[in-house]
Amino acid sequence: MTRTAPWPLRPTRAALLALGAALLTGCTTASYYAQSIEGHLALMGAAKPVEQLLADPATPPDLKARLALAQRIRAFAVTDLALPDNASYHRYADLKRRAAVWNVAAAPADSLTLKRWCFPFVGCVGYRGYYDEAAAKALADRLQREEGLEVRVYGIPAYSTLGWLNWMGGDPLLSTFIRYPEGELARMVFHELAHQVVYVQDDTMFNESYATAVERLGGQQWLATHASAAARQEYAAYDQRRRDFRDLSRATRDDLSAVYKQKEALAHDPQALTAMKSEAMARFRQRYAELKARWAAAGTPYDGYDRWVADANNAFFGVQAAYDELVPAFEALFAREGGNWPRFHAAVAQLAKLPKPERLAKLRALEEQAGQTAQSDSVEPKAR
User: 243, exposed or middle or buried, with CB in 10 Å at 0-12, 13-18, 19+?
Assistant: First the structure.
């Protein structure tokens, strides 16, 4: 299974556990409680110990190979990336569906700011998760119809319980991502484990950008030290396309943000604002067509982002921002800490203690000092 989303879909990345939100909040409906609890319990009930599956002659050889690889990646996360050594990712569940959870995101027609749902302890997040795709689409339709919001429904292959449920067996490996290319599998595990190291209430962008930085830097280190040349080559082409698309999307977010800053000045002429937004979206799609042409000319044609581009809206760009907006700043922090993983995690934990405006200002300053995104992308992690 190849992931074709423009950001690492793991809120997500990742998705905060819908179960935890349902158990802790009193402001959601009984049906949402029920689907959250039942969905996660079903997922946990399907999970079996990896050691048991590896010893079982009935386990398909290709699955055994992926599970064994996942356990090597899991051990590397502890020994080399200073990520938690606990029950998570030592069991496997076949979900027999294409996503673990479907998230709903929504934003106004003139803003990239996502609608937020708030829960005790978990805090406020810019999405709402469902184990049933139809239920997610029903909410999206209602938000669009009743509130006039632009909506996005997207499946995610994994989510994090933030370590809260390690006593129940922890987060399992899932059929939704176990067959990802080696580099992607490693990144997935590293991202989700990072959520168990640092998590800040009411700051999705901080949480997801930190976890995405961990997955990128950790993924580079895994590939450099443990993967075959073929795996590195496969991943290099895949990751370059993703970086190209992220750069394009970030530029389009900047374009749209500039448009929306003018909405007060253009309050008397809403059609002008709509026209400017349409022009920005048209440029986005034209630049994407040029990207595809460049990939094809380089001998690596790819159309995996076509559906995302066709359906792109404010909710799309708002969700994507949560995953990559602050990644260059975290990469700069990693470089400042000398590529030392324990020191990096500790520095992130210190930032997490600051008021939100202050930690954001410090991260922005780090990015500026590092010389913008292109330079920070070249950071290479060092072994502990």
Answer: middle
Q: Which residue numbers in the chain have pLDDT < 50?
A: 1-27, 373-376, 383-384
The separation between the first and the last C-alpha atoms of the chain, rounded to the nearest angstrom, is: 32
- Secondary structure in 3-state letters for the chain: CCCCCCCCCCCCCCEECHHHHHHHCCCCCHHHHHHHHHHHHHHHHHEEEHHHHHHCCCCCHHHHHHHHHHHHHHHHHHHHHCCCCCCCCCEEECCCCCCCEEEEEEECCCCCCCCCEEECCCEEECCEEECCHHHHHHHHHHHHHHHCCEEEEEEECCEECCCCCHHHCCCCEECCCCCCCHHHHHHHHHHHHHCCCCCCCCCHHHHHHHHHHHHHHHHHHHHHHHCCHHHHHHHHHHHHHHHHHHHHHHHHHHHHHHHHCCCCCCCCCHHHHHHHHHHHHHHHHHHHHHHHHHHHHCCCCCCCCHHHHHCCCHHHHHHHHHHHCCHHHHHHHHHHCCCCHHHHHHHHHHHHCCCHHHHHHHHHHHHHHHCHHHHHCCCCCCCC
Identity of the residue numbered 180:
Y
**Residue-wise pLDDT tens digits, 60-113:** 999 999 999 999 999 999 999 999 999 999 999 999 999 999 999 999 999 999
Q: What is this structure's pTM?
A: 0.84
The answer to whether 24 and 37 are in contact (CB under 8 A) is no
Return all residues near 375 (Cβ < 8 A) that are at least 6 apart: none
Task: Output the CA–CA distances (angstroms, integers) from residue 351 to 255, 329, 335, in the order listed.
Answer: 29, 12, 16
Q: 93 and 46 in contact (C-beta within 8 Å)?
A: yes
